[in-house]
């Protein structure tokens, strides 16, 4: 069990691509949501995981994650998913001593690019790269679980 | 992923106790149910598991099970359970070349004793011990998931 503290931002432009140091594709889908827990299968590169996150919102939350065989993950995504899977490519982008992750979404979320940073404490000071836009940490519709239900390409402009 | 084929019976009396060869306590709880999948945490003796079973009924069903740290299981049962956990003691009882499992339920299912046998094929012939009663393989209210929602002690006589 881990407490996860992260902040999330919209990405303003493509200039981060000059400093990315690696990437891997992600496919993930939710198989259950209750008032207590969100349940996800994720394939990240060659590795697969089952993850349970407490549904309590905010900056820090309980998370339980276990590595599982990739073949099981493929089967479970096909058999148990509530909505079509989310697909994205995750890039690692260092900036002034931190590693940012930049997620370039595909499929029904095509056009959406988000950056995340994991923190050791909620009030940790961080240096912001110039390509970082609006913070959306507490905006529920940028959560992956929301993006599965209401993908980016279905949002109406001015929302 | 495994295909699970098992038959389930009510236990008629206590005579199986003369031939039991071992037992372990089980505590388990469901953290999600969807039309596709039932999701369970189980602590069985000193081991703990997360299990996803396809919700399609019948004699055989898809099951995915992974070993997890016991401390995680305790925490997840407390934090994510839909209903109070099921508690039971599971006994191994050999009879004519097969090992039967006998579950003696406690808590809100006190008084219920069920026997199960795992088969290699749905039409496999088996020798029945004298303490085996009515078959309940296809009776949904004897499923553990049902017993969590509607425990045995709440059933009315003549149901």
TrEMBL record, chains A, B:
The active site is at 30 (proton acceptor). Pfam families: CYTH (PF01928). PROSITE patterns: CYTH. Residues 2-149 form the CYTH domain. It comes from the Bacteria. This is Adenylate cyclase. The lineage of its organism: Bacteria, Pseudomonadati, Pseudomonadota, Alphaproteobacteria, Hyphomicrobiales.
